[in-house]
Amino acid sequence: MRIGILGCGFIGTTIAKTLEGHPKVTAINLFDIDDSKSKGLSLTVEGSRYFPFERWEEFIEESDLVVEAASHRAVETYARETLKRGKDIMILSVGALADDALWEDMKRLAEERGGRIFIPSGAISGIDGIKSASLGRIEEVVLTTIKPPKGLKGSEVLAGMGLNLNKHTSPVTVYEGPAREAVKLFPQNVNVAATLSIAGIGFDKTRVRIVVDPAATTNRHEIYVKGRFGEMHIVLKNVPSMTNPKSSYLAPLSAIATIEKILSGVYVGT
Ligand SMILES: NC(=O)c1ccc[n+]([C@@H]2O[C@H](COP(=O)([O-])OP(=O)(O)OC[C@H]3O[C@@H](n4cnc5c(N)ncnc54)[C@H](O)[C@@H]3O)[C@@H](O)[C@H]2O)c1
Question: What is the mean pLDDT of the chain?
Fold first, then answer.
């Protein structure tokens, strides 16, 4: 299978380096809005080649599975184009799918043209159980995300609120409300809220609380689900990436595990 990595940052780089030499991967195609990143990565990963930004169509054509690990904007720009060509796509910037028109188009194109859409669990776990539970009835899904200040560094919303996270010594709740709004306000931070929403009861019913804790050393996600199946409590304390503290190490591992599923045809879990 020819794998196209769209976005050569922390997640894309981890995936490309892990797939190097994989017996079932015949090509690793690299693409980034910043050519120096895709070109730089191609020099360190054997069997890979980079596609300059203006050759995005060729990048998609030459890939069987496009793994998006870039940004909401990248999903908006390339997801339809990938599915239109009957290709498979994996989405990491899941918050982009809170745009109902985009998500409906993607599902329609996949059905019409035969491509598949993969959304890995990313930085959380329990998506398998929530998917199963959603076949019965789910009444409540609540996600509480607790991050160190550097995990929300650069947030335009927090800057707009005049909140200087470095001045706080105790935890501050910076958002409480529906997942739909959370993913728009904090696009780089709460993709997990989007994945939960898609697996469970949707963007409007899933509740999200975001807390910044100066004492936190992990990206902590607490998930509570209540439904006909019973109740679920999931707690993750994720190690943040060294290169991008907004991302957790578990996220690329989850994408790689999903690629392994696709390559091997062995599906464990829902
Ligand atoms: N699903 C999850 O649980 C989960 C977890 C962590 C991160 N993420 C998301 O995955 C994505 C990648 O995360 P990361 O930590 O690797 O980020 P990163 O910032 O380290 O890398 C992103 C790369 O994508 C490139 N890029 C951005 N916009 C682009 C575009 N329009 N076209 C082409 N390239 C583009 C950037 O130049 C950069 O090299 C982010 O959107 C992040 O929010 C999802």
Answer: 94
